[in-house]
Write a structure and sequence with these properties.
Length: 129
Amino acid sequence: MTSSISFNIVILYLKKIIQIRRIGRDNINEDRRKKLDNIGFAWASTRKCGSAFMSSYRPLKERLLRCCDRDDATRTGYVVNESKLKQILAENEVKRWIRAQAEAASKGNLSQARCDYMDQLPGFDWRQL
């Protein structure tokens, strides 16, 4: 029972940290900001790797964009190397990751922001892969 209570306290603590970071240093009560600054509160995450989602998303998007001509105005790509695109999308790890995102989205477990990121992947409909 104690470990479950401890775990719940940790989760509440982490949620509060996220909430404070989202409010932002400049938008929080001045007294509270001073107290948080005095204890060394990290206003931005110190994690270097980013989320697991972004760690997979960024390299995949870069690889897919190499198959495209870029439109720098819209930061999108038009597929010019269809065979290379299909080769990337046929990789087991890529297929598995994209299908996991599509499944999470279909169950309502993928945030709109992540769906928007997925929509930026050029050359295919990630929900239909």
